[in-house]
Structure formats: structure tokens, C-alpha cells
Write a structure and sequence with these properties.
Elements: E1 4-7, H1 14-25, E2 30-34, H2 41-44, E3 48-50, H3 56-66, E4 70-73, H4 79-84, H5 86-107, E5 110-112, E6 115-116, E7 127-129, H6 140-159, E8 163-164, E9 166-168, E10 170-172, H7 185-196, E11 198-201, E12 209-213, H8 214-226, E13 238-239, E14 243-245, H9 247-255, E15 262-265, H10 269-277, E16 281-282, H11 285-291, H12 299-314
Parallel strand pairs: 1-2, 1-4, 2-3, 4-5, 5-8, 6-9, 7-16, 9-13, 10-12, 11-15
Antiparallel strand pairs: 12-14
Bound molecules: (3R)-3-hydroxy-L-norvaline.
Amino acid sequence: MKRIMITGALGQIGSELTLFLRKLYGSDQVLATDIRRNDSEVVQTGPFELLDVMNRKGFYDRANQFQADTIIHLAALLSVAAEGNPLAAWHLNMEGLVNALETARELQAKLFTPSSIAVFGPTAPKAMTPQETGLRPVTMYGVNKVAGELLNDYYFHKYNVDTRGLRFPGLISHTALPGGGTTDYAVEIFYEAIKNGRYTSYLEPGTYMDMMYMPDALQAIVDVMEADPLRLKHRNAYNVTSMSFSPEELAAEIKKYLPAFTMDYQIEPVRQAIADSWPNHIDAAAAKKEWGFSVQYNLTTMTKDMIEKLSYKLLP
Ligand code: VAH
């Protein structure tokens, strides 16, 4: 990767990935784009342009002017937002991806698209969910992610576009708050624990989901994008995960650092139903075998780092 354009660069992944890639490849080599502008480091520390990914000509023009050899397409609506407005999610998540694929095809650029554990539905094995199994999601976001994986495969086989992607679990970070996701609780709980000493979980006890700390997610994106293409059998849809926990297990880990912290429950049926349809713990064996996927953080070390970083950020 030499000249990288990122869409959705002000979102949860983009706001950290942009800075991470600028450190690795040079600030001027990473063009951040988003449909809005703010005064964050992403905008202030390197090239930034406004881009509506639904505008195919605008998408191509931005990438062509920047002479991008790699596109990282992050702009999308996540699971809960998509359930609230399924057709808007279909349009943004699918037409945005088609515009990314068409731009990558015309510029002969590599393309990274995040997939998600949302591709799995209630019929997939809940434990050690395999890389290859039936994908029958019951959410619009999951439908978008399955269709996205298939579209990426199609562009690779038909046009030889170098498409790559990862099935991300819930991502936890201390930089940008997530928005519109089912796994957002695993980030919100830290902010509430530090600021107010308590949190109300919208998911029931015993609701297990795969999670990953953002530093491991950023490294995984670089590693899969820099991997030898001849080793990539699955290419667009690698299962990746670091840990799996339930709300009460995360709360217990936080209490080790904030003993007065308490959590209660007010279940949100939409998010509970989405979480119940996803795996408890997926199998990342293919990613480990094909491009050496590995992680640095587990529940204990992630919690310690989140508490330290957010305490510094939130407390006077
Ligand atoms: C969501 N954070 O909750 C996203 C992610 C696996 C979850 O795709 O929708």
C-alpha cells in the first residue's frame, strides 16, 4: 500500500485507522474522506476531503486525483441503525460498496471492506463458528455484509480486483465512540463506569459476543492488506476475534479497577434479538493459517488499558 484513500474516516474505525496508517506510511500518503468535516486529528494531520460515497463520479474523482493505489471503504450503517432504516442501509451499504468496487476496478487499486460477525445467523454454530458455514443472517446489516462479501469475490474473479476483508467482531476503542451498533455497550460501559460509577446494560446477562480491542483490529487490517495474495484463500471474509464475553463478565473485570462500579439491566428487544442471532465465539483459524493473524489484547489487558486511557481523558 502506498497511496491510501479511506472512506468513513471520521467513524469508529476510521478515526484511529487514519492516524495509524499515517504513522506507518506517511501523513501525505493517506487521504481521509467523510461526508462531514470536524476538527479532529484526522482532519488536521493530513489530507482530508469531503466525499459522499453514494456519488460514484465523486468517489472515482477523489481516488483518481489522489492517485490512490488502495481504498479502505468504511462508510456504512451498522446493525442497529440498519434495522431502524433498512432501505437506507441497503442503499448506503450496497451502492457505496459498488462505487468503491467500480473505482478500485478502474484504478486497479486494492480494496479493503470490513465484513462482520453479523454475516452469521441463528442457524450457524454458536461456538467456534467456522470460517465456512451457512450464512443466513436475519438483519439487514448481515444481509448487506453477506452480499458485500459475494460482490467482493465477484470483482476479484471477474475483474481481478484485489479485494480483501475481515469479519470484525465488536470493536472496542477509547478514541471514537461507536454509533448504531449492537456491540456498542462494550465501549459505553467504560465511559459510564468512569464518569458515573454505574451502567445500565441493554443486553441480558449471558449474552456472549466476539470482541476485539481496536489496536489489534488496526494491525489486522494492515497485515491482511500486506499479505502475499497467493496465500489468501478466503480473501474477503476472514473470521477474526480476540475474545468473547458477556456483559456481567466485562462488568466484573471493570470492578477490579473501579470497585464501586455497579451495573443493572434494561433490555432493548431489538439489540437483544440481533445479539442472540450472532455467534458466541467464532473460529479465526483460517486468518491465522493464511496470513498470520494474531492479537495482543485479551479481556484483562484491554480493560486495564481502556480504564487507564479513558480515566486520563475523562477525569479532571
Ligand atoms: C455492530 N459494531 O454492532 C458493529 C459490528 C459485530 C458488530 O458489526 O453493528
